[in-house]
Amino acid sequence: MANSDKVLGQFMQEIGEEKVDTSRKLKIGIIGTGWIAESHIQSYKNMPDVEIVAAADLIPGKAEAFMKRFGVEGVRFYPSHKEMIDNEKDLDGVSVCTYNTAHAVPTIYALEHGINVLLEKPFSVTIDEAIEMMRAEKKSGKILSIGFQPRGDENMKMIKKIVQSGVLGDIYYIQTGGGRRRGIPNSTFIEKSTGGIGALGDIGCYSLDVVLNAIGYPKPLTVTGYKSDFFGTNPKYATPDRFHTAEENAKRFSVDDFAAAFVRLEGGIILDFRIAWAMHPDTSGDTIIYGKEGALRIPSTECWNGTFDKPMTIYHDVAGSQVETVVPLIPSRGPGLFDKKIRSFLDAIKYNKPAPVPTSEILYNQAIIDGICKSADLGREIEIEIPEI
Length: 389
Hints:
This protein is of the alpha/beta class.
């Protein structure tokens, strides 16, 4: 067996599919029926053990039109999360699909009423909001899982397997990021009152999770952050949508379209991070995890919200020779990533399992994002302070 085959053999395994127990139907509600809720509803419809019973949206008629468009009948509609939760006494879980600045309030209310929550990313806008949600989670004893569907991808899982195998040795430096030449999503994403944060919260949280999850989510200690809005506020680069011209969107734009940071983590690990909704180059660089015994190169993607389309490479020494081991892509098969995300949430409810993507991990993700914003505003390095839960 070749050396490269020996290295790869320790990571490969068969991927099986599990059958779903349909003897108990889970009653699910949807809070917020905007764009991301479309993926949630499609996946819930694919689950044979789910009954979608309620939906809430602040805009009159929006939830009704949403369910009609997706062919879901028998749903009760409410103008707020509070009215839905107060009237739906048998909910097993809810998907919170509101805009970023409205994540905390419905999540806390649901948990306080004994309802499990699948909260779309980002966790929150600020670290304080994340802490309040975690306190409600702890008090309720219910599940609060954060919506990071890339964790279900086999190629993403391979990153963690390689790092945790020890083949790279102790990790000491990571460069990561991603971004698009042009890809500002408009809508509620670009205003501070609704989005709160821009590219950092939309796609930066994914990029952070890829590497932090792989190395075991060490605590962040300090951060030097930078953010800018040169593209979003410029009508030359802004784009129109159904409701606004490019010029109007440029005036509305009040979040980051680019961010970068230098983060010190526990264990002496350095994280070099950058993310963009818009920039002139076609990539901000591949993700590279540097270890004392080897390094792993992960091909750059625009936003890390799924998988990647090129093989990874391990750089290491074998028998005194410098070797490059190409890690073949694992073909996508079986359910899609959103289906896997929804399925893992449902199984956690049914079988009393831990949250699939626990807040204890994503808290550190959010602390870094929060720290980047604070550091950028102050123009200097800051210590990352994480309150007790």
